Amino acid sequence: MAEELKICPPLITEKLEIAVPNYFLGNWLREQITIKNKISALYELKTISSYTESLLIKFFPEIDMSLWNFESIKWGIIDSLEELNSFKESSPLSHWINKYLDNKKTIDGDIYNLIKKITNNFIDYLIFRPEIISEWNRYKIDSVNLFKNLNSNQYWQPILYKLLEKKISEKPSCLYMIEVIKNLRKIKKFQIKVPNQIYIISDNNLSRLHIKFYSELSKFTKVNLYLLSAGDDLWNRINCLEGKLEFDDNESKFNLNNTNIEKIFGKFGANFQKLIEENIYEEGINYKNNQIYIDPTNFHDKKDIPLLNQIQKRLIDNNRNDFIVNERDDSIILCEHFNQHSQLEYIRKKIIEIINSCENIKYSDIAVLSPQTNQIKPYLKYIFNNELINGEKIPYFFIDEDNNDSPEIYKFLIDIIDIANEKITLEKIDYFLSKKVTQNIFDFDITEKDEIIFLLTQVGFHWGLDSNERLGEEKNTLEWCINRITLGLIYDKEDNLINFNLKPFSLNNISLDLKKWVKLLIDFKKYINLLRGSFSYRSWIEKIKFILKSIADSNAKFNLEISEINRIFDNYEIPLIPNDLILLNVFREILISCINKAKYQRKSRINKILVSDIENSRLIPHKVIFLINMNSVYYPKLSKNENINLLNNKYHLGDPSVFEREKYAFLELLIACRDKFIITWVKNDKNNKKLDVSFPIKELISFFDRFLNKGQRELIIKYYDLNKKEIIHLASSKIIKSNYSLVEFLDWNEKKYDIKNYKLSELIYWFKNPQKYWLNKKNISPKQIFVHHPDEEYVSNLQKSQLITKIIQELEIDNQNFIGDVKKLNINDQLVENGIIMPKNSFPIKEKEIKDLLESLSAILTQHNEINRIYAKSNGNKEEYFVADDTVIEIIHAKLSLSRLIEAWIKSLFISSLKKNIKNTKVIFRTENHYNSQIIQPPGVIESNLILEDYINIFKNYSEKCLPLPPESTYKYVEAKIKSKNEKKAFTDRWIGNKFFSKGEKDNIEMKLCFGDEKEPDFFFGNNNFDKLSFRLYGPLIEALKK
Fold first, then answer.
1. pLDDT of residue 342
2. Which of 192, 228, 418, 760 has its CA at 20 to 30 Å from residue 523's CA atom?
3. pLDDT over threshold 80, residue 156
4. 130-138 vs 173-183: helix axis angle to the nearest 10?
5. What is the Cα–Cα distance from 880 to 893, expressed in whole angstroms?
6. At residue 408, does pLDDT exceed 90?
């Protein structure tokens, strides 16, 4: 094409239009023509439908050819449902139509999915059955001729078409194409109406009508049809039967002696070639068939031609040369992997190996393609785009149907819609605030997020956005919590605010900008309420635009993205959209579809690996192609034969077949690959369920078996359990063991930091979870697994902790009547109020559990005459304490874990460093159904300050890099050494655990990410700094407990 344009260039003022299969190939083509001809021409790349419509407009300038598009048909069908219901022929749809009408014309998910199916069928008729559309167009809606050649359960379709005709002002473009084909010679000034040359690049995407249309035009102007084919004369090579689809049992067709690659994968391309040949013969068209294939073997010495290029050459020219396989040939590989993790790890390693060993291959020369991108999406950022993994960051450009690389504002809209569809809980708020896009829009970090989540817990948030979500009950909702925090900013806790019927919440830590967070939570609540309900399309758009304006007013850096989304909304608006109510989940799908139409034009792929589905990228040449997830459940997609689709009444050559189209894509990728073609599949899914390799790939392996000896086969075809060299279990897999270690060596070097500027809450959080803090800072948030104990017959430990915490917060232990209030407490009311539901006969048991707990707590608290609330402040940190004489009272309504003990210790150091009169901290904690206590004796003011300063410096050093000490195992190590016990055994027991009874600390997800799956204890002991840092961290705490 570049040569053609060079010989016959368009006029300088002429805009050259080229029909291409998709945007990605068009973009690549534009670049190649520009490079080849050393000039950037005014090219406009269009789909074949858009290109044909633009030609038709030259013949019919008053007609809008684009009216019969997917969106117009979809909304027109929705607007026609009520009228369609008045026809008796609509009975096959009566269930859905009645549901739609009974729900006051509300469009739910079922209705919307049905409408999309019908719309897709009508699009098929416009493209592949224009003769049916022409017949329907001829007759009136009451004519029996509409039902010609249809079954009675299909009669509703022509009626629906006639209803659409009334709503869409013009005929479909296919009817104008038929008119041009019949009357082209009669059209005046024909030469003015068509370009001198027509350029079409086709990948078998032309229908019979398109071929006839351009065949007719070719009688009067030059039509350049560039057919992207895997080879010539595929029809005769495959020897399919004309006009018959062969959907026989695949196994019966499996013939080892007669298998070739085009027979396995090429039927779709063969059908299209036959369709063109038939049309050319029928129309008597003179055509020139130029074979412009490039011989892929020309770039190598005859003895060293890679197997990939030999296979490509045979596909192209159908030669019968024997394949010669070099012992070092890795141009084509078929490889099985244990699961998705190991498959992507293999690809990551292979990419790094190729980039490092091949100077002429860049990241942009590599593509990773999958039949379904949703299978690999969850793993991408951890496997490819994380510089922490073995120090390698692999840049990638991701394309998928969910628009993963869309603007951040778009992602935020999808997130807020998703959360609005669900019950608002602390976990949902935590998840929403953990999203990077939310943090960027509202300008906060993950540490602030953790603080606000903790604060909401302290304020008393239980669940629910407001009283509407909790059926009139406002208490413990998000709105109730926001009001308490707001009052706490204005009033002291002691103020009696009878008019508000609400107590202000005393703020424990002012390091947070609470005014900012109150506004953020109010906006969050406002957005959720705005999106709850069913509204018309236009109302939905107004609501989204309101949210976008609210964001733009507070954060100007997103204005460009917001303007772009508003522009897309404005362009999407069509007159046919009715005012029917649309459910939120349906609007979400409409929003995705709306954005997807404009999603790729703004993307940039500068030296990045392409990660995509097969369909979007099958035609773009790459030096290296990884074709992954080639399992039978993913590839090829099985055809869903919709019984309402009229194409199923009779097969015509050229009809679409998803099954054959998917298989043919393999050949297109094979031809598009230049150097290395690597095909992989997995043996197990994420639930360890066995998966089969795709049957076409099995046939391909059998094709190789015909000419490969044993050594060559092992070079090209690799099985996961080949020779039993790999263990099947994920936990003990050597692949996973080494690859998931983010820390390959321990960094003990420290710098001196400014110790005056710090947040106490951050220091506590880091001390409790140093590895998790570091991972979060690197935007890695490992999911924690909640362990449920089904043998808890009474109130669960979690319920106990939440209930007692809430009761103590409300009664307040510094209240002089606390003990009396506890005795008066109605436990049954508290159980019901906190959503602890149980059979009536179990109420006494549960009531006794809670009473025993409260009595146990009261017994410990009565040992102190008076408990007062005080505040300690220093360097912008403020902490609330309950103090009895010289003892701080710290209550933990759960077991005393190391992390809870550490929190009490840091808070004890903080107050001891400021107040001389504080001698002890009494940690009161729960063990099953009673409370115990533990005394912490911090050192004096000077020593507390020194320890705190050292902790701050350690924190600032190891928040930038991973702390080389696993907390629990190291604590056991220090404790054993202080008590003159075997410290290495203590560390090892906690690190490894007992395989029969309890897991070790190494099994925690953050430990696996940081240190790998199977790091031995000696990994940590191998440096003298281990002892020093261990004792600096945990020695003072253990000494304080020892006293």
1. 85
2. 760
3. yes
4. 90
5. 17
6. no
Identify the CA nearest to 699 among candidates 757, 649, 760, 630. Answer: 630
CB of 561 closer than 8 Å to CB of 403: no
Task: Identify the residue whose tokens are 């409260």.
Answer: 854
d(CA 712, CA 737): 30
Task: Give me the pLDDT at residue 907, please.
Answer: 93
Left if phi > 0, otherwise alpha if psi is -120 to 50, otherwise beta: which for 472? left
Residue partners of 415: CB distance under 8 A and separation at least 6: 432, 435, 437, 438
Alpha helix locations (H) across 839-940?
Answer: 843-861, 898-912
Q: Rounded to an integer, what distance in angstroms lies between the CA atom of residue 205 and that of residue 225?
A: 12
Residue 610's SS3 state is strand
Which pTM was predicted? 0.67
Neighbours of 1041 (CB within 10 A): 15
Question: Residues 951-1002: pLDDT tens digits?
Answer: 999 999 998 888 999 999 999 999 999 999 999 999 999 998 875 556 889 8
pLDDT-derived band at 244 (thresholds 50, 70, 90) equals very low
Token pair in block for residue 691: 């998966």
Show the CA angle centred on residue 956, arms to residues 952 and 958, nearest 5°.
115
Question: Would you give the DSSP letter of residue 536?
Answer: -
3-state SS assignment for residue 398: strand
Peptide bond into 636 cis (omega under 30): yes
- For residue 879, give the H/E element and its range: strand 877-884
* Distance between CA atoms of residues 172 and 137, nearest Å: 10
Q: What is the pLDDT of residues 98-132, one digit of tens each?
A: 999 999 999 999 999 999 999 999 999 999 999 99
Q: Other C-beta atoms within 10 Å of 250: how many?
A: 11
Rounded to the nearest integer, the mean pLDDT of the chain is 83
pLDDT for res 879: 86
| Distance (Å, whole) CA 641 – CA 775 | 48
Torsion of CA 70, 71, 72, 77, to 10 degrees: 90
Query: CB neighbours of 832 closer than 8 A, spacing ≥ 6?
Result: none
Question: Could you give the CA distance from residue 347 to residue 117 in angstroms, rounded to a whole number?
Answer: 37
| pLDDT per position as a tens digit, 320-376 | 888 989 888 899 999 999 888 888 888 988 998 999 898 899 999 999 999 988 888
Which is nearest to 389 in space by CA: 354, 358, 348? 348
pLDDT of residue 724: 40
Structure tokens at 927: 């063990």
Burial class (CB in 10 A: 0-12, 13-18, 19+), 536: middle
800 CB-side CA count, 13 A: 26
**Residue 642, pLDDT above cutoff 70:** no
Helix (H) or strand (E) holding 930: strand 930-936
Long-range contacts of 245-249 (CB under 8 A, 24+ apart): 245/651, 245/657, 247/659
Place of tokens 């490039």: 294
Q: Is 626 helix (H, G, I), strand (E, B) or coil?
A: strand
pLDDT at 835 over 60: no
Two tokens, residue 8: 């016959």
What are residue 439's phi and psi, to 5 degrees? Answer: -65, -40
pLDDT at 736 over 70: no
Q: Does residue 855 carry a pLDDT above 80?
A: yes
Chain centroid to CA 171: 41
Check residues 405 and 911 and name the one with the higher pLDDT: 911
Domains of the chain as residue ranges with CATH? 2-64+178-283 (3.40.50.10930), 70-168 (1.10.10), 323-403+604-645+671-728 (3.40.50.300), 408-596 (1.10.486.10), 741-963 (no CATH)
Whole-angstrom distance, CA of residue 524 vs CA of residue 531: 11
pLDDT band at 836 (very low <50, low <70, confident <90, very high): low
How many residues would you count in the chain? 1043
Computed from CA positions of residues 970, 971, 973, 977, in that sequence, does the dihedral angle turn out positive or negative? positive
